[in-house]
Amino acid sequence: MFLRIINRAEEAIICILLVLTTLLVFIDVVMRFGFNSGFMWSQELTLHMSAWMVLFGASYGLKVGSHIGMDAFVKLFPSTGRRILTGIAAILALTYCFLIFYGSWIYLKKMHLIGIDLEDIPVPAWLAHSLLLFGFLFLIIRLLIILWSVITGKADGFKHADEAKESLELAEDITKGEAKS
Asked: Which helix or strand (DSSP H or E) is residue 94 part of?
C-alpha cells in the first residue's frame, strides 16, 4: 500500500511538473516574441520545476530501470557475486544519498533561519529548495527497495536499460523486415 502511494505520487508529480514547465515556457516564449513582454519570474520558476523533475525522475528511473547500466564487469560473476556487488553498490549509493539528505536538512534549516525569498518570486528560499529533501528521500526509498530485493534473492542487480541489447534487437528486426521484402 505504501509503495503504491509512493509510486502514484512520484508519477503524478513528474507529470504535473512536466506539463506546467512546458506550458510556462510556451506562454513565456509567446509573450516575449509575440508581444515583446514576459514574466520576470518565469525563468526562476522553470529552473526550480526542472530541478524537481530531475530528482523525481532519477528516483523513477531507478524504479523502472531506465538508467543506463555499466555492468559488463558485474556480469562476469555468478549470481551470488552479482548480488554482493549490487549490495555494495546500493549501500554506497545509500550512503551518498543519506549524506546529501543530511546536508540538505542543515542547509534548509539555515535558509529558514535567514528567512530570504527567491530573487523573482515571493516564496521562501528554503521552501523552494526543499526539493532536495523530497528528491533524495525518494531516491533513498528506491535504493532500499533494491537492496532488500537483492538481500532476499529476488534480484541480483539493478534494473537498467540495456541499450546495446535493444539496438541489436532493432537491427535484427530491420534485417528480418528487409529479408521479407
From this structure: helix 79-114
Torsion sign over Cα 107, 142, 14, 163 = positive
* Residues 6+ positions from 91 with CB-CB distance below 8 Å: 147
Query: Could you give the CA distance from residue 141 to residue 17 in angstroms, rounded to a whole number?
Result: 21
Task: Kindly report the pTM of this predicted structure.
Answer: 0.78
Question: Cα–Cα–Cα angle for 121, 32, 120, nearest 5°?
Answer: 10
User: For residue 134, which of 113, 105, 112 has the smallest C-alpha distance?
Assistant: 105
Torsion sign over Cα 142, 148, 150, 152 = negative
3-state secondary structure of 165: helix
Task: State whether the Cα torsion 169-170-171-174 is positive or negative.
Answer: positive
Cell of 36: 515583446
Reported as a single tens digit per residue, the pLDDT across 102-132 is 999 999 999 999 999 998 899 999 999 998 8
> Which of 136, 10, 115, 125 lies closest to 64, judged by CA?
10
